[in-house]
Amino acid sequence: MIAASISDYRELARRKLPLFLFEYLDGGSYAERTLRRNIDDLADVALRQRVLCDVSKIDLSTEWFGNQVAMPVALGPVGLAGMYARRGEVQAVRAAHKAGIRFSLSTVSTCSLKEVAAAATAPLWFQLYIMRDRAFMADLLDQAEAAGCEALIFTVDMPLPGARYRDIRSGLAGAPGLGGQWRRLMQAAAHPSWTWDVGVFGQPHTLGNTATVLKGRTGLEDFFAWIRDNFDASVTWRDLEWVRARWKKTLIIKGILDPEDAIAAAGMGADAIVVSNHGGRQLDGVVSTAKALPRVADRVGGRLMILADGGVRSGLDVVRMLALGAQGVLLGRAWVYALAGRGEAGVTHILELIEKEMRIAMALTGATRISEITKDRLDLT
């Protein structure tokens, strides 16, 4: 299959991955209405076409936190990415930095921060949750500082994991012990290329950043049990003040949908927010990112940087997000579909596609610089 779009890479990932991994990547919570709204609402955003403008020189570069990036796109944090291709986070960071954009490493990555930092050629971003073990959190913050991470993404919309029915049906969750292991082994056996590339040659599968607290336990049941036991449902804005006091560099709060929460994030000293509903993986039925973004931007635009994720499947979608009020976009499933389909080459390819598609969208809306992609580029009729 020749992949010409991110949707094509989704199909490549579906063909290549064992069912339990594809469903974990592709699925959302409950009936997945928010997951679908993210895609559909963004696709429904109409742009205002303009013609006979001089668009011979289009510049996609922009400044983020005092540094130039090639385009206003970053690879957002995705857990277990190293299970989708051999040492997946390492392959992805190479592709991102080669393209001149930022890469965000998840707390629950397969490859450790140390391993990914060794492969990086530009500053990293690191993602963190509030966990009950504050000493462990403090250690991760120290590791991020030592690795030269430029920014910390603090995810706030996961006090508890969402209910994801696909994970139960696929055998990833809800089937503990030998029953679940047997189902996953049978699914892996039906995908021999993945089994050899990742299952055999992609080891160790240790969830590198949590290896010290998991103490040698590497099974998926161990991972999900650790998630359940260590995420802190009692977290409040005061806990974020603890993080802000310990982390002196750029702090990004991810998981904001309500304007009042955006105001609170600005008030506690965050440098940026990510308007996000966790890709439709947490509370199903909430508003899509495309619907939430303009309301948030109207309230806190200019007070801090606004990033967004959710439903982005093309460079055209990136331009739509910018016109709705974002200053940058985090890719999630999009880059992991590509990673699963073709590894580093796949991630490089989708970033090239996004760049080309952004240039076309900008040319046909009369914008030559990122700063010109404002709500004036929207057709609101």
Kindly list the characteristics that best describe this protein.
381 residues, 16 helices, 10 strands, alpha/beta, two-stranded antiparallel sheet, TIM Barrel, 8-stranded parallel β-barrel, globular
- What is CATH's topology name? TIM Barrel
Q: β content, as a range?
A: 5-15%
CATH architecture: Alpha-Beta Barrel
Arithmetic mean pLDDT: 92
Shape, principal axes of CA atoms: globular
CATH superfamily: Aldolase class I
- Strand order across the biggest sheet? 3-4-5-6-7-8-9-10
Please give the CATH class.
Answer: Alpha Beta
Ranges where pLDDT stays below 50 over 5 or more residues in a row are: none
Percent helix among the residues?
40-55%
Largest sheet data: 8 strands, parallel, barrel
- Counting DSSP H or I runs of 4 or more residues, the number of helices is 16
> Radius of gyration, Cα only, in angstroms?
20 Å
The count of DSSP E runs of length 2 or more, i.e. the number of strands, is: 10
- Class per helix and strand makeup: alpha/beta
Secondary structure layout:
Blueprint: H1 6-16, H2 19-26, H3 33-43, E1 62-64, E2 67-69, E3 73-75, H4 88-98, E4 102-105, H5 113-119, E5 125-129, H6 134-146, E6 151-155, H7 165-170, H8 177-189, H9 192-200, H10 211-214, H11 220-230, H12 237-246, E7 250-256, H13 259-267, E8 272-275, H14 289-300, E9 305-308, H15 315-324, E10 328-331, H16 333-365
Parallel strand pairs: 3-4, 3-10, 4-5, 5-6, 6-7, 7-8, 8-9, 9-10
Antiparallel strand pairs: 1-2
Helix pairs in contact: 1-16, 4-16, 13-14, 15-16
